[in-house]
Amino acid sequence: MVDWPLKVGLHHLRYFIAAAEHGSFRKAGVALAVEESSISRRIRDLEDCLGASLFQRHNGGVTLTVAGRQFLQEARTAMRHLGHGARDVGSIGRSESGYIRVGIFSSLASGFLRDLFQAYHAGRAGVQIDFSDGHPAEHIAAVRLHQLDVAFVTGTAQHGDCETVHLWSEQVFAVLPTAHSLAERQFLVWQDLIGETFIVSEQAPGREIHDFLIRHLSGLGRYPEVSRQNVGSDNLLSLVAIGRGLTLTSEATTSARLLGVVYRPIAGEMLPFSAVWSPNNDNPALRRLLSMALERRRCELHASA
């Protein structure tokens, strides 16, 4: 492999390869739309830098020397690598490839997030997306540390050095056993739930559901009985089905049907969701995702107006 001096530039390689392929400085100049003298001068500079003659000059044009033939292979390899690198960087810059880490607090089964990521993947299948469930406070801390690119969390509160934008809202639903007396109702109000036993998961979003229940039911004069269970969402619904208690969920999760449970909306109770990200995060894949999310929000607002 040739040990190239730092003075060898891209234009030297382009001119050299063109002269080698055309066998003439004049024809290389025509192909590149530059003066023949520029081709000759750059190649002379290149030979001076390398300390070797690359061409034998004659009246009919030029032919490669032994050193020139070896250098041609190196030059073509270098140009090919530069081309690949430029395409890779351009692809990342256009967010056609890359990597994005996403913290979620809602379901991907349906609704805003499902539609957003379905559209994002359709146009950018080369972007790897890593999803992480978890508590909003932990996700926001991870965003600050650039361990997550963006977190989709409940609420609209601002978080100091992070950017926050409200994107969508979901109806809050009570999850009931099918045999429960309230299952006959089309919708519920908070007063209907006074005196009921609730179960929540120790995992996310159990803590938030617990606080949500306390906030709404204690204001009606009754502190609710809430049991914590160290199970995931699927088993939590199974516990509801066998009568261990009720729970709450958001609209996007209600597409998951389980034998023995029904979902009933709580009238007027909407849960806002926001995207949170660091303004110092320059990941192009993130910027494109945020752009698509904001455009989807605008479309939904326009449709509901």
Helix content: 40-55%
**Which series of helices and strands comes N to C?**
HHHEEHEHEHEEEHEHEEH
Q: Total number of helical segments? A: 9
Average pLDDT, rounded to a whole number, is 85
Low-pLDDT ranges: 1-6, 88-95
Present the secondary structure layout.
Layout: H1 10-22, H2 25-32, H3 36-50, E1 55-58, E2 61-64, H4 66-93, E3 97-104, H5 111-123, E4 126-133, H6 136-144, E5 150-154, E6 163-177, E7 197-201, H7 206-217, E8 225-229, H8 233-241, E9 247-250, E10 261-277, H9 284-304
Parallel strand pairs: 3-4, 3-5, 7-8
Antiparallel strand pairs: 1-2, 5-10, 6-9, 6-10
Protein architecture, described:
The structure is a single chain. 42% of the residues lie in helices and 25% in strands. The chain is built from nine helices and ten strands. It is rod-shaped and about 100 Å long. The model is unreliable at 1-6 and 88-95 (pLDDT under 50).
